[in-house]
Design goal:
Layout lengths: L12 E8 L5 E9 L5 E7 L8 E6 L2 E12 L1 H4 L1 E7 L34 E7 L7 E5 L1 E3 L2 E5 L9 E8 L2 E13 L3 E6 L4 H19 L3 H9 L1
Antiparallel strand pairs: 1-2, 1-4, 2-3, 3-6, 4-5, 5-6, 7-8, 7-11, 9-10, 10-13, 11-12, 12-13
Helix pairs in contact: 2-3
């Protein structure tokens, strides 16, 4: 998408926005999302400077996702800073049911990931290759058989290598890993680089069952998603 997101509806939503502003300072604030579409929205009422290319976290209700800033303008003293944002590929739109479903670009059948990502709290330990920094015990908030996303205000730099350790019931699993995306003030995407296909599949099945038990979804639907 070039320029501002395509307008699909005049609905306005109260959302929470966080990230790193144009002055490299972390922020978190309430704002209004308008001109909502299946690709993005217009944010109104931002009180921190932004620049195009910034990655922001946006939460509506209990759903949240990462967005890229595609344009910024000064809306004056009343509307403050306004910004057009586009959802990052692979994320689920927090207002999917409000946006025009015919224009929703991340609908089932169009997601390119081999493994479905589950938005659950999954404990992991991050170890760094230089052995000079302490291991990080944290939670992945978006995880599948080949990688995960960790929300943190201070993500590791792009290309950082290390190890990821986690448990599947009584089994301890460890894999080398590399940071594939680093979004200051939001988080980082991590790829599992030495998890063999058999373990990837078992991890995905474990996550499918874990997500189903948390959400109460029909197991048949979860099985269908896992096979996609």
């Amino acid at each position: 998408m070039e320029g501002s997101p395509e307008i699909q509806t005049e609905s306005q939503l109260h959302v929470r926005v966080w990230g790193m502003d144009a002055d490299a300072r972390p922020f978190s604030q309430n704002a209004v999302a308008s001109n909502i579409s299946g690709e993005g929205a217009q944010l109104v009422g931002i009180t921190h400077p932004l620049k195009t290319g910034d990655i922001l976290g946006i939460k509506h209700g209990e759903k949240k996702a990462r967005f890229k800033v595609v344009w910024v303008t000064d809306g004056g003293s009343l509307r403050k800073i306004e910004a057009g944002v586009q959802i990052v590929e692979g994320q689920e739109m927090p207002w999917q049911q409000i946006a025009n479903p015919e224009e929703f670009t991340f609908a089932p059948g169009k997601i390119t990931r081999r493994f479905v990502r589950h938005k659950i709290q999954f404990p992991i330990e991050i170890g760094l290759a230089d052995n000079q920094r302490a291991h990080m015990n944290t939670n992945a908030t978006d995880i599948g058989g080949r990688g995960c996303y960790v929300e943190t205000m201070l993500p590791l730099s792009l290309g950082t290598q290390g190890t990821i350790t986690f448990w599947m019931e009584d089994e301890k699993v460890q894999t080398t890993a590399v940071v594939r995306s680093s979004d200051p003030g939001v988080g980082m995407g991590i790829e599992f680089t030495t998890l063999n296909p058999h373990v990837q599949k078992r991890l995905q099945q474990f996550l499918d069952k874990m997500d189903t038990s948390l959400s109460g979804e029909d197991p048949a639907k979860s099985t269908t998603n896992a096979a996609s």
